[in-house]
Design a protein that fits this description.
about 350 residues; alpha/beta; 10 helices; about 25% strand
C-alpha cells in the first residue's frame, strides 16, 4: 500500500502542524537537501511544449529515494475555469523500485516555490528587510507573501497586477496575515521603495516586467515567473547589472532569465552559496537576482516533508497503486478465476483454413 495525500490532506497537515512551523521545516528541508547537492542524480526536466503551454516530468534521486513530479503550465487555462498549474508526485524506494508515497503537488509546488525564494532571499537580501513588492497576483502570490512573512518577517507589501480582480482576490486571501498592503498602479510604482521585488507573472512570452531604471541599488529580486524557453520578465540590461543566482544552471540557461545572456555568463548555483563555496551579496548596493525556474530537488524536499508529516499526524489514506499478487512470481494469478469463452461454455470459432 502507498500512502496517498490529496489536496485536502495537505491543507489539513498544514493546519495541524501550524503555518510557521510548516514553513520553517520546509525551508530547512530545502537547505539540507541543497547542502547535499552532490548526492543527487540530477538532470534537467523533460518538457513537452505545445502552443498553449507545457507538460513536464521532473525526476531526481539521492541514491536511496527516487522522486518525480508531473506538472503543467497553461496560462490560458483560467479562461476555461481551470488552474494554470496542477501537479502530483511520488516517492519510491530505490532498493526495491516500489512506490511508497504519492501526493497531490498543486499545493506543494506553490509551497516549495515560495520556500525556495525565502531560502535564497535569506542569504541575498539586505539584513533588516521588511518591504517586498509582488508583481503578478496569480495562484503563487499568496504563498510568497505568506512564506516571506512567516520566515523572514516581511510585513509590508507593494502589489500590482494588470487584473484588478486578481488584486482583490489577493487582498482577501491575506487579510489575516497582519500585512500592510499598498496597491500600486504599475510595476514601477510597486518596485519603488521595496527591498525585495518578486515577479510572478504567467504569460508565456518575452516580457519586460522590470527594467534597469526601475530597480534601486541594494534590491534583491526573485524572478519566479520566467520558467520556460521564450518566457522572461527582466530586461537584459538589468541582468547585466546584477549578480545572478540559480538552482541548476544547465536548466536555468534554457528556461530562466539567463536564456537572454551568453552561455558562459556567470551564475552561482544556490547550493554553492549555501555551502559557502561562492560569495553572496557583495555590498549593500549590489543588486542580486534569484533566477528561479523550479528544480526537482525542491520537489524531493517537499515530498519528503509531506511523507514525514503524514506519518506524524496520521493524515492520508492507503492506496493500492500497484499489483500485489500473493506469489510475487505469479502475476497471472491475479486474473483467477479467469472467464474465457471456453470456461463459459461459449462455442469457440472454427480455426481459419489456409487456402492451398
Amino acid at each position: 500500500m502507498v500512502t496517498f495525500l490529496n489536496a485536502s490532506d495537505v491543507a489539513k497537515i498544514v493546519r495541524r502542524v501550524g503555518a510557521r512551523r510548516f514553513w520553517e521545516r520546509l525551508v530547512e528541508g530545502l537547505r539540507d537537501d541543497f547542502l547535499r547537492w552532490d548526492r543527487f542524480d540530477k538532470c534537467a526536466r523533460f518538457a513537452s511544449h505545445s502552443p498553449g503551454g507545457v507538460i513536464e516530468l521532473m525526476p531526481v534521486s539521492d541514491g536511496e529515494v527516487f522522486a518525480f513530479k508531473f506538472v503543467n503550465g497553461h496560462p490560458g487555462n483560467t479562461q476555461l475555469c481551470l488552474q494554470t498549474v496542477v501537479a502530483f508526485g511520488a516517492l519510491a524506494d530505490v532498493a526495491t523500485g516500489y512506490p511508497v508515497f504519492m501526493s497531490d503537488m498543486t499545493l506543494a509546488t506553490a509551497f516549495r516555490t515560495a520556500a525556495t525564494s525565502v531560502l535564497a532571499a535569506r542569504h541575498l537580501a539586505r539584513p533588516g528587510t521588511r518591504t517586498m513588492a509582488l508583481i503578478g497576483l496569480g495562484a503563487q502570490s499568496e504563498f510568497q507573501a505568506w512564506a516571506f512573512h512567516e520566515v523572514l518577517g516581511i510585513d509590508r507589501l507593494r502589489i500590482f497586477d494588470v487584473d484588478e480582480e486578481a488584486a482583490d482576490k489577493f487582498e482577501s486571501n491575506v487579510a489575516g496575515f497582519g500585512l500592510g498592503i499598498t496597491r500600486c498602479d504599475n510595476a514601477r510604482h510597486a518596485a519603488h521603495g521595496a527591498d525585495i521585488v518578486t515577479t510572478i507573472t504567467a504569460d508565456k512570452k518575452r516580457a519586460t516586467i522590470l527594467s534597469e531604471d526601475m530597480i534601486a541599488p541594494g534590491t534583491h529580486i526573485n524572478a519566479v515567473g520566467g520558467d520556460c524557453p521564450g518566457k522572461t520578465e527582466l530586461s537584459r540590461e538589468l541582468l547585466l547589472r546584477s549578480d545572478i543566482y540559480v538552482e541548476y544552471a544547465p536548466q536555468t540557461r534554457l528556461e530562466g532569465e539567463l536564456q537572454q545572456l551568453p552561455a558562459d555568463h556567470p551564475a552561482t548555483e544556490l547550493h554553492e552559496l549555501l555551502a559557502g563555496r561562492k560569495p553572496g551579496r557583495a555590498s549593500k548596493d549590489a543588486i542580486t537576482i534569484f533566477d528561479s525556474v523550479g528544480f526537482a530537488v525542491e520537489d524531493f524536499s517537499a515530498l519528503r516533508l509531506l511523507r514525514d508529516l503524514a506519518r506524524e499526524t496520521g493524515v492520508g489514506a492507503g492506496l493500492e497503486l500497484t499489483a500485489a499478487p500473493t506469489n510475487p512470481k505469479d502475476l497471472f494469478s491475479l486474473l483467477h478465476p479467469l472467464e474465457t469463452g471456453q470456461a463459459r461454455g461459449d462455442a469457440l470459432p472454427e480455426p481459419m483454413k489456409l487456402s492451398d
